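[Discussion] Sanity-checking designs against the backbone

I'm trying to build intuition for which residues belong where. Below is a structure token string of 312 positions. I'd appreciate it if someone posts a full sequence so I can compare it with mine line by line.
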């Protein structure tokens, strides 16, 4: 795989705050890269520097083997950007909005008409071409926002929280559309706070915090970084405190809690964790109603690396 985007030693500071701190990574052709991080981690600043919307102190950014500069319109024409905030014209219909944004890059009317129809089919807006934005649901408005950003068939697509506050059907439609774009050869940078989306569509993940890379790799590879690999929840109506002390001594137990009749145990990597727990419950004649076991998720990785405190 060859790099289509190269960022080397990028640093962007605001007075004494380093929003991006000596950051280096590549994005490879044809992949979906998940760029993750808590609020204030440097994701948006990195993207704005990448697009030459912000000046930065040091570093180098190359796109399609050319240095990215504010006046490099040849590169900019090959990039499609969909920001989190909806950016469409209220006075134009769905079709007119897409035609306007596509026309910024595609002058040939016949070609533009073809591109517009293809993107309408991709995002599922065929039945809404004559609707105005105010007549669309939140999910449909998100789809229109995406269509406007990618209607000119860019080689590189940057999607910033494209599924925020949409219904499950629209979210599924959007994710399927993103995977189709990758199949057609697009390279995609994807930011989101929905870790299940990252696990579903991203080939590789970079986790940022305080302007630095904490970890990078495939979603499955990153799961190897955490201390635990299994979580078990057991519904028990009554559990004596002595049992909590005994359960802590079970092999591979990492953390244990009992709140509101739910016993929650996280296990370190190892074998027979659930079997050992069930054997203890049986020996002590502890009755339970439901039991649920799950393996580590990308969300667990994210929280362990970035911390669990809330960020403004």
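Best answer:
Here's mine. Compare freely.
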């Amino acid at each position: 795989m060859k790099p289509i985007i190269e960022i080397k030693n990028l640093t962007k500071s605001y007075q004494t705050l380093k929003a991006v701190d000596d950051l280096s990574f590549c994005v490879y052709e044809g992949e979906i890269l998940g760029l993750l991080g808590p609020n204030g981690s440097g994701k948006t600043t990195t993207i704005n520097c990448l697009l030459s919307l912000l000046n930065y102190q040091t570093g180098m950014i190359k796109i399609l083997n050319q240095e990215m500069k504010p006046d490099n319109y040849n590169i900019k024409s090959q990039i499609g950007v969909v920001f989190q905030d909806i950016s469409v014209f209220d006075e134009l219909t769905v079709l007119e909005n897409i035609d306007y944004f596509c026309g910024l890059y595609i002058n040939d009317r016949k070609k533009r008409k073809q591109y517009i129809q293809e993107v309408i089919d991709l995002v599922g807006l065929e039945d809404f071409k004559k609707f105005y934005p105010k007549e669309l649901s939140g999910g449909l408005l998100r789809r229109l926002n995406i269509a406007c950003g990618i209607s000119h068939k860019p080689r590189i697509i940057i999607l910033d929280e494209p599924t925020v506050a949409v219904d499950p059907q629209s979210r599924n439609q959007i994710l399927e559309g993103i995977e189709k774009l990758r199949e057609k050869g697009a390279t995609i940078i994807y930011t989101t706070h929905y870790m299940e989306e990252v696990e579903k569509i991203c080939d590789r993940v970079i986790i940022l915090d305080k302007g630095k890379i904490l970890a990078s790799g495939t979603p499955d590879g990153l799961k190897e970084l955490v201390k635990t690999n299994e979580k078990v929840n057991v519904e028990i109506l009554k559990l004596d405190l002595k049992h909590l002390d005994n359960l802590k001594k079970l092999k591979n137990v990492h953390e244990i809690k009992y709140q509101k009749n739910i016993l929650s145990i996280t296990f370190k990597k190892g074998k027979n964790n659930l079997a050992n727990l069930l054997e203890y419950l049986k020996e002590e004649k502890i009755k339970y109603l439901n039991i649920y076991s799950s393996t580590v998720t990308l969300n667990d990785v994210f929280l362990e690396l970035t911390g669990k405190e809330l960020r403004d």
